[in-house]
Amino acid sequence: MKHQDNHPFDIATGLTGEDTTRHGRTSDLYANMVGPFGGIIAATLLRATFDHESRQGTPVALTVNFAAPVSEGGFDIAVKVIRTNRSTQHWCMELSQQGQTAATATAVYAIRRDSWSSTELPPPPAVSDSGAGVRVTAEGLPAWVYRYDIRYVKGGIPPLIEIRDEKAFLGSEGIQWIRDEPGRAMDFFSLTAICDSFFPRIYVRRNQFVPAGTVSFSVYFHAGAEDLSAVGDSAVLGHARANRFYKTYFDQNAEIWSQDGRLLATSSQIVYFKE
Amino acid sequence: MKHQDNHPFDIATGLTGEDTTRHGRTSDLYANMVGPFGGIIAATLLRATFDHESRQGTPVALTVNFAAPVSEGGFDIAVKVIRTNRSTQHWCMELSQQGQTAATATAVYAIRRDSWSSTELPPPPAVSDSGAGVRVTAEGLPAWVYRYDIRYVKGGIPPLIEIRDEKAFLGSEGIQWIRDEPGRAMDFFSLTAICDSFFPRIYVRRNQFVPAGTVSFSVYFHAGAEDLSAVGDSAVLGHARANRFYKTYFDQNAEIWSQDGRLLATSSQIVYFKE
User: Fold this and answer.
1) E-state strands within A34-185
2) What's the complex ipTM?
3) Comparing C-alpha atoms, which of B235, B240, B239 is closest to residue B123?
4) Residue A166: is it exposed, middle or buried by C-beta count within 10 angstroms (0-12/13-18/19+)?
5) Cα separation, B22 vs B45, whole angstroms
6) Whether A90 and B101 lie within 8 Å, measured CB to CB
7) Which of B 233-252 lie inside 8 A of A, CB atoms?
8) How many helices (H) and strands (E) does chain B have?
9) pLDDT one-digit tens code per residue, A170-194
10) pLDDT given for residue B146 in this prediction
11) Could you give the CA distance from residue B214 to residue A144 in angstroms, rounded to a whole number?
12) Residue A162, number of CB atoms within 10 A of its CB
């Protein structure tokens, strides 16, 4: 997979150091309200395993637990190959700053072979034109939002809901076209970050901003490197919704579809919220 | 939470040793085709954190990565508190046998407070009677199936599909009532195992048994201890489906509902399969 060294995404997820201890640095361009955009941290943790010389296969599953906000500046990632089997490989990662753990993660890689295949999940209501939808104006939003071209097909965050006269909209469902800004060819890292690009569903559901932060985030990859190459720098279609908001935590599931209707990834996260 | 020491589930998930290194032993009563039922391993890993003297709050998220089959006999679980914040706590666990890692896991606990709450996901087609459905006959199936009373409302595994004349059924969706056998009051451990009690969706979809094994499994808990106490030993309603089968891996999502319509947990897993 070709790295695109000059893209802000690649600078933000870039790592130096040895295979077992990588060094990274937060990028202002992917800053969130507190610390960096979670998607960029998840992508960086995945990259730390992908670039390891012992790596075998491509990612199948990634889980990141956010234990504390990542502060502006440098960080270390400890990378450990837990077990390498004939066709699978298991990893643990730990991101720390000044000796304090800020995130832990696990990844499963696999050598995937051709097999009977089928997509059961129906794609979201067909929107064939990736230019359709209301473009998010990043103004007033955290820096990372500027690093994506997001066009809402359904749902949105305030004040978009008012603009679209969706005051009566009561659910948290969102459908959006999304691509890196500027454009960048899709790979496992950008797909990971895009899985986390849906605003916390509480914003949509309650039509207001409240303090919220993901505590655990998982991605399942349903694509090989060749499938992602085929996506190129096209926008992909994201579909997200919450299942339950309960006692200061809610979950949200999301799927990422290519324009030609391939399900590239399914994702879930559980998010703290404060009323 | 009261432990129910004489129940086979509590014997199978029982641990001795120190907080940071627990010792367990596989139980024939929860054996699967290769190694123990994954749900019992996941429940045991959660118990290793729950019983730790530093534990704060109740589980919000659990992820288990199955790196290798667990062999019959003893195993060790290394338990590490990664970070304790004001309201959350992060854990890493590693299950090993003879110094080889067989599973890794992470857990997030939280002190949950009352908040605005809402369940957006609609429950599966209403089936008010937990006695409804076709009872699974465990005959010919692995031992762990005998440890549950499972009644299919929709979907099933061969030869149940034929019995129910669902040959034309093409999806992997399953709905089932389930409770421990013999009965046992619900807690976080049994809820974890029940999240993994759905047969691999490939069996349902293809109406045949093929080699299959979960590589990563996650549970999000939408319930506190008091919610689980209210369930008691009643059956709960499970709903599961696959999203995509692709190149020897598929994912499946599941939800567990109480009889009074509370969403207790959402769960996902990604599973290896061989044609």
Assistant:
1) 58-66, 74-84, 88-97, 100-110, 118-119, 134-135, 148-154, 174-180
2) 0.95
3) B239
4) middle
5) 10
6) yes
7) 241-249, 251
8) 6, 14
9) 789 999 999 999 999 999 999 999 9
10) 95
11) 34
12) 11
**Which residues of chain A neighbour B210 with C-beta distances below 8 Å?**
none
Closest C-alpha among B43, B108, B32 to residue B70: B32
Which residue type, as a one-letter code, is found at position B175?
Answer: I
Among the partner residues B60, B172, B274, nearest to A120 by beta-carbon distance: B172
Q: Is A134 on the interface with B (CB under 8 A)?
A: no
* pLDDT at residue number B161: 52
**And the tokens for B46?**
């959660």
Q: Token digits for A225?
A: 């490197």
The β-bridge relationship of strands A100-110 and A88-97 is antiparallel
Rg (CA), chain B: 18
Q: Copy the structure tokens of residue A77.
A: 């990632």
CA distance B210 to chain A (A): 12
Q: Tally the residues of chain A.
A: 275
Q: Does B81 contact A at CB distance below 8 Å?
A: no
**Cis ω for the linkage preceding B211 (within 30 of 0):** no
Percent of chain B with pLDDT over 90: 81
pLDDT digits (tens, 9 = 90+) for A218-251: 999 999 999 999 999 999 999 999 999 999 999 9
What tokens were used for B191?
A: 């809820």
**In this complex, do A88 and B242 lie within 8 Å of one another by their Cβ atoms?**
no
- SS3 (DSSP) at A144: helix
At residue A136, the pLDDT reads: 79
Specify whether the CB–CB gap between A110 and A77 falls below 8 A. no
